[in-house]
Task: structure prediction
Amino acid sequence: MAEVHFFIFFLKYLALILIYFIIGHGILRLFRIKVPISSFVQYFAWSSGLGFIFSSVIIALIFSYGKTIALAAILPLAWFIYSLKKDENTSNQQNLKLDFDLKEIISALLLLVILYMIININKNLFYVEGAENIFRSNVSNSMFYTNQETTNSYNFLDGYKYNYSPYHYMILWANGVVARLFTNGKALSAYLYITNPALLFIVILLFYSLLKLFVKNTYISFFLSLVVLFFPFINFPNIILKISPILNINIEKLNGIFYQFGFPINYPILYIFFDLKTINFLLLLLIGVYTYSFNKKASIGIFGVSPVFSPLLLTLPASFFSIQLFTKKEKKIHILLIPLFIIIYFVLIKFILSSQNNINAFNEF
Result:
């Protein structure tokens, strides 16, 4: 019975990945964009990531009737499409054909299966912050049913002063749709066994794709990707406890340092790796870096849209802008789009999404 349950959820996990790829590929075809990516596996990873970004934004705009932080994604994504369309290197790739390297495809399939087997064997991976994950799932459901982008249930009450708080809304909008499609509305099951694993696989495949830009050997890149996947399972707390007497380390002081970052020393690193915030960060970062490898202007759109997926990701466009600003290369005026995107993000939160008058929009549909 457990095997049947595993197989069914594995198929749903696989289906979601394929849906994201189809959406990403479809958007590129819709705008007649060719990108200089010859490897099918790398194209699959990049397109799947784009599929998640675009579909999440579209879902948020539709189900919130436009009252969503996803509004701040429109301009960056428009710039992303425009930059790809206008890229000379892209326009010269009209005859480029994807290389269906069997070794790469088998490696990707192994990563796909190994990741889900890890999740199935370690069923508590996403439960370390059980209350937090249950909360996120409940928010995902309530957003979908009420068409309101909020973490505060009091916002649903008449007479209560509406308050908008930034959060990881895009992935929760996406999870709400996944729950309807695959788990009959069970948002927690969708979140733990379909949405998060699918996004984590895309992250691992994007990491593999970036490695391939520098390490041409498929087997070495595959091995390093496995190392990244299994690295979080190293029991660092036990290692630290064992070596602390030898190195004369004060565990209490060390634990105090760890608490400054929000988790105790015995907090397994694998739970940080499998957390929504980490997956969000890595997904946007890797897509942005990979895009930068062949189109620097288009990468501005990816980094610019990052805060929409999590307020913590404001670090990405800020870091990108700083690096570009202080490099010795020729200054490009288009990097000024980054502060523009960030200003739009904050203006939306402060003056539009937090406006009490706009709450009436929910009741008109």
Q: What stands out?
A: Residues 2-30 form the longest helix (29 residues).
